[in-house]
Amino acid sequence: MKTLILGAGYAGLAAATKLKPTSDLEVVLVEQNPYHTFETRLHEAAAHNTQVTLPIEPLLRGTGVDLKLARIQEVDLDKQTVTTKDGETLSYDTLVIGLGSVTNFYRIPGLAENASELKSIEDAEEIFDWINRAHQADYTGSRNVIVGGAGLTGVELVTELAQRTELLSRRRGVPKLEIYLVEAGPKILPVLEEGLRKSAEKTLEGYGIHILVGHRLMKATENSVTVQPAEGEAREIEAGKIIWTGGIQAQDIVKGEKLQRGPANRIVVDATLRVPEYPNVFVIGDMALAQGKEGKPVPTTAQHAGQQGRLTGKNLMRLVRGEALQPYEPSSLGEFVSLGGLMAVGWMKLPWNQKLAMSGGLAHVMKRASEWRWRASIQ
Ligand SMILES: Cc1cc2nc3c(=O)[nH]c(=O)nc-3n(C[C@H](O)[C@H](O)[C@H](O)COP(=O)(O)OP(=O)(O)OC[C@H]3O[C@@H](n4cnc5c(N)ncnc54)[C@H](O)[C@@H]3O)c2cc1C
């Protein structure tokens, strides 16, 4: 069975590392980078230049999977082909698509042109370089950083930036950055329950971050954003750096006449994570619109991408052995949001569907533990 796994993110890499060399299974993992990116730690790379990548090749030892480095241009499910940027056409019997998501700028005027994103190591490096420049004594531009979107990514980023500017301004004797967190919704971190959210909000206020909830980002230029509060006049804020973390959508390089897509362009999959109209195609991770028990869309998180990848790896082995595939049963083991340095808030799942809420150092340890678990699962 000639199998292609597209993307070595949380989903694709989890699938590949669950495989074992088997005579009837020939697997190639196609990925644009020779490394896996710990996307959940990109905010640390952006603020502190932390190493957040791992070479893929050694992780595939003992799996029988070959790595092909290529940028995928198009996937055509009707022709059963994958075309790379270099013009190469790959064919498959079975396909696993885990190419992740891209930033959704929601067509806000000027935003795509003027805002940085935080989706790749290059994005993180670009932000890191700007922070360094903005802390030079001869820097003359605005030291305002505007981060749009107060979900997980936005909140984790502003808290790391706050810690970084504190350190650099003390060390170099220059003014600190003024950090604005702009959110159209009424609260930050809507995924968290009220108590934890309040605790996170207090930490942000302690850092001196300007929290503008209920403010819609209307427009961006090279050096400003315009925000519209729920009530009152729109206002323009000067910006040295604009970073948009306010939305994602699935990659749009998969074509198929019968393909069904849901919100944020996610591809509809069945209980075994296969595309109903193309049963030889699995879609996993941020690209997939998988459903939980009550028919609710599974969140786009690394935790769920990893679960889907591991299941799909095992299901590929079952396919080769002619066994029935196991369905996907999503489970949330907890959720932790880092708030800079050794601070975090979150909850972990206890038996009988109970949740244990935590904040401070212990939550930070739990957040780190989930990352170590991920590393251990692919090594
Ligand atoms: C800053 C930040 C913080 C986050 N924090 C958390 C968190 O704390 N907890 C959590 O659960 N989730 C978090 N997330 C979300 C999480 O990272 C994603 O849900 C997860 O990465 C999705 O996994 P995936 O495998 O679908 O995609 P990805 O991990 O994005 O992997 C996609 C892979 O496909 C490759 N690829 C893409 N396009 C192409 C192409 N055209 N050709 C070849 N290769 C390609 C990419 O290089 C990448 O390796 C965070 C995200 C960000 C950005």
Number of strands: 26
Strand content: 25-35%
Strand ordering within the main sheet: 5-2-1-9-22-21
Class of the largest domain, according to the CATH hierarchy?
Answer: Alpha Beta
Q: Rounded to an integer, what's the Rg over CA atoms?
A: 22 Å
Question: What is the CA-CA span between the terminal residues?
Answer: 25 Å
Cofactor: FAD
Enzyme class: oxidoreductase
InterPro entries: FAD/NAD-bd_sf, FAD/NAD-binding_dom, NADH-Q_oxidoreductase
Organism: Deinobacterium chartae
Please name the defining characteristics of this protein:
8 helices, NADH dehydrogenase, 379 residues, EC 1.6.99.3, binds flavin-adenine dinucleotide, single chain, 6-stranded mixed sheet, FAD/NAD(P)-binding domain, 30% strand
How would you explain this protein's 3D organization?
The chain folds into 3 domains: 2-103 and 248-331, 3-Layer(bba) Sandwich (FAD/NAD(P)-binding domain); 111-244, FAD/NAD(P)-binding domain; 335-370, no CATH class. Strands 5-2-1-9-22-21 form a 6-stranded mixed beta sheet, with helices on one face. The protein has helices at residues 10-16, 42-48, 111-114, 121-134, 152-172, 194-206, 302-321, 361-378; strands at residues 2-6, 26-31, 35-37, 53-55, 65-69, 72-76, 81-84, 89-91, 94-97, 101-103, 144-148, 178-183, 210-213, 215-221, 224-229, 235-238, 241-244, 248-250, 254-255, 267-268, 274-275, 278-283, 288-289, 334-338, 344-350, 354-359. The model has no long low-confidence stretch (mean pLDDT 96). β14 and β15 (224-229) form a beta hairpin. The protein is of the alpha/beta class and 379 residues long. 27% of the residues lie in helices and 30% in strands. α2 (42-48) packs parallel to α4 (121-134) and α2 (42-48) runs parallel beside α5. The longest helix has 21 residues, at 152-172. It is globular, with a radius of gyration of 22 Å. The chain is built from 8 helices and 26 strands. Flavin-adenine dinucleotide binds at residues 7-12, 31-33, 37, 39-40, 42-43, 71-72, 98-100, 118-119, 152-153, 156, 251, 285-286, 300-303, 305.
